[in-house]
Every structure is written in structure tokens, then in C-alpha cells.
Amino acid sequence: MADYSGSCLCESAKFIVQGEFDSFYLCHCQYCQKDTGSAHAANLFSNSAKLVWLQGSECVASFTLPGTRHTKSFCKTCGSALPTTHSTGLVVIPAGSLDSEVTVLPTAHILTASRAVWDAELELVPQLKGLPS
What we know:
There is one protein chain. The chain is mainly beta. The protein has a single domain (3-116), classed as Metal Binding Protein, Guanine Nucleotide Exchange Factor, Chain A (Beta Complex), CATH 2.170.150. The chain is 5% helix and 36% strand. It has one helix at 30-36; strands at residues 3-7, 14-18, 23-27, 41-46, 50-55, 60-64, 71-75, 81-82, 84-85, 91-94, 108-110. The longest helix has 7 residues, at 30-36.
């Protein structure tokens, strides 16, 4: 069984995930676009892993969009996306919140009917190793 560690940007909240991931989805729904301010969310899912807060659980807030199952947990201090455990036991981990290397590739892009128009052919966009000058 693997353990993965993670934290928020300000490091007020730190956690470990004990167990394996079942799937890794890049979700293009409009809710995830709003959550991330980007083209999609990148979330790992597990029905068997356990989420353990090492510190800062009191810094974590959660918002569930009324009438949906869409929940976002985040740090109250810095706003970073953080993991959540749904009432079903499903653990959802924002991939970018992990400090451990994620070695699994995404399972699929989902809800691509809502894909942002500008999220196409991104491999053609120039790539810079640092900040633009």
C-alpha cells in the first residue's frame, strides 16, 4: 500500500493518503472550470484509500454546490484545493495538492462537451522553461 503526502500552498494544511488510486480524471465540466479557474480539474479518486490530516484540518473549508454532488474543499488561508471525503467514502484528491510524485497517467478526459474553446491543440502553444521575458 502506497502513501502519498500533500499540502496546501501556505502549508497550513498537510495530509497523507494511505492507499491506491482507482482513477484519475481530467474533468472539463463548467463546475470544475469555475473551481480551478482553468480548463479542467485534475482529480484522483479512491474508494479504498484513507485521507489523514497531519495538521491544519481546521483550516479546511468545503463547499457543496446546492442540488449537486459537486464538492470543493480548500484552505481557508490560501485558497488551495484540498482533498475531500464524500459521504459514500469516496476520497477525491486534487492532483496538484500532492507533494508526492504522481506516477499514474490520467484515466480519461471527462465531460468534454463542456470543454473550454481555448483548450484545444495546446501542444502547438510555445513552451517556455521559465517566466516570459
